[in-house]
Amino acid sequence: MNAIFIGIKGSVVAIDRATGDTMWSTHLKGSQFVTVAVDNGNVFAATYGHLFCLDPSTGYVRWTNELKGFGYGLVSIAGADSSPLLGEYRKRQEASHTSAS
Q1: Domain residue limits, the chain
Q2: Which of 6, 29, 34, 85 has the greatest number of C-beta atoms within 10 Å?
Q3: CATH 2.40.128.630 is right for the domain spanning 3-100
């Protein structure tokens, strides 16, 4: 997918990298700040004390976690596979270790 994902005013928006066109937008909840991360073929977004998993092609909400008991503050998201560069680095490291064995 050739998209970047932004969080703005309670929504996640997919923008085409080449053209800048909006591919889809999904309103989540409220009008709060939205934290966004891409990991393992999913778009994760958090706003107003809720975590959402979105389909990166359509913006469809796959699931929601209300994060009960944690309040409505800002949520940070981190994922082990969120960087394609990190994934490529890991592949090269594994290949290097395999050929050294």
Answers
A1: 3-100
A2: 34
A3: yes
Give per-residue pLDDT as tens, 31-86: 788 999 998 889 999 998 899 999 999 999 999 999 888 877 778 887 745 455 55
Containing H/E element for 86? helix 84-100
Residue 60, token pair as written in the block: 């469809």
Residues 6+ apart with CB under 8 A from 37: 43, 44, 45, 77, 78, 79, 82
Alpha helices in the chain (DSSP H): 84-100
Residue with tokens 């909840």: 29
Cα separation, 101 vs 97, in Å, equals 6
